[in-house]
Write a structure and sequence with these properties.
By secondary structure, this protein is α+β, with helices and mostly antiparallel strands. Strands 1, 2, 3, 4, 5, 6, 7, 8, 9 and 10 form a ten-stranded antiparallel sheet that branches. Helix 4 packs antiparallel against helix 5. The radius of gyration is 20 Å and the shape is globular.
Length: 204
């Protein structure tokens, strides 16, 4: 009889998880960019929900989640940050709304786009509050989206700054700090979206 405990064979999910971890670029340290973002958010209080998830608490009724997204480059990688708010909605709502931009950096125009009927309904809500569009047009961001599915809604914005470029050759790290004006516009956009969605999707 063997005196050693045999290890169970890894499941498919475990093997896929291992492959995902292996794809992360060399030198990436989860949460390091979030630590820098936490300092940028002062004086707003921040908390850590779990490794890799930073919470910003601008107001008692508003919680903003921040996570990292890694993009691999040749001999380098970029760590982007994703700021999001979320809540509950009708389980029958199913949509994805994104933002398309046109114009120049100094004079940017945006419009909301969705392929689903429920998404068109949400776009109607957004267009009824011009302050949301105006704030987003003054914000430098890579992507914006709102999703509604399975009784939950989520709005996620990936700003251009609050990101970090890590190069292997030469070995350097360059963090793009988010300017106070951009931080204000980012948090304001998420607060406005949160108020809008709570008003229209509140479940009773």
């Amino acid at each position: 009889m063997s005196h050693y405990v045999t290890s169970p064979k890894p499941s498919l999910l475990q093997r896929l998880g291992g492959l995902t971890k292996k794809r992360l670029p060399t030198g990436y340290q989860a949460g390091l960019t979030l630590n820098r973002i936490e300092r940028d958010m002062a004086p707003y209080p921040c908390e850590w929900r779990a490794p890799g998830v930073l919470l910003i608490l601008p107001q008692p009724s508003l919680t903003i989640d921040v996570t990292e997204r890694v993009r691999k480059l040749f001999l380098a990688f970029i760590v982007y940050s994703r700021f999001s708010v979320s809540g509950f909605c009708d389980e029958n709502l199913n949509a994805k709304i994104v933002v398309k931009t046109r114009g120049s950096v100094r004079k940017k125009h945006i419009h909301f786009v969705s392929k689903q009927p429920d998404g068109q309904k949400v776009i109607g809500w957004l267009n009824a509050y011009p302050i949301i569009r105006e704030t987003l047009e003054e914000l430098d961001f890579n992507s914006f989206q709102i999703t509604l599915s399975h009784g939950h809604w989520r709005c996620e914005i990936e700003p251009f700054t609050a990101s970090e470029l890590v190069s292997r050759v030469p070995a350097t790290r360059r963090y793009l700090k988010i300017a106070p004006t951009q931080r204000y516009r980012l948090l304001s956009s998420l607060q406005l979206i949160n108020q809008l969605m709570e008003k229209h999707t509140a479940t009773h």
